[in-house]
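Onboarding guide, step 5: your first structure request.
Type a short instruction followed by the sequence, for example:

Predict the 3D structure of this protein.
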Amino acid sequence: MIQTLRRYALGIGELNAEGNNMRKISFLSGVAVLVLIGVGAWIAVGTSSSTSALAASTIDPFAMMTSAKDLPTSHYVDYSLVFN
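The system replies with structure tokens like these:
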């Protein structure tokens, strides 16, 4: 009797086929909902932004590097030849 209860509690009894099917259906429906949310968010974000606004706000990294002034420098002390 106790072994039978343990098997049902662990999902390896006679109800396993129905439980597995229900588990698969709920997993696949959860995946479908997440995919639909992702596609909806992708479409919503894609329609709200224009490419002309993105093109006007370009960053020139070379100009940033050449015009940088008074940047902090790092100092390292070499202890590789210290013998005690």
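Each response can be followed by summary notes, for example: Residues 16-48 form the longest helix (33 residues).
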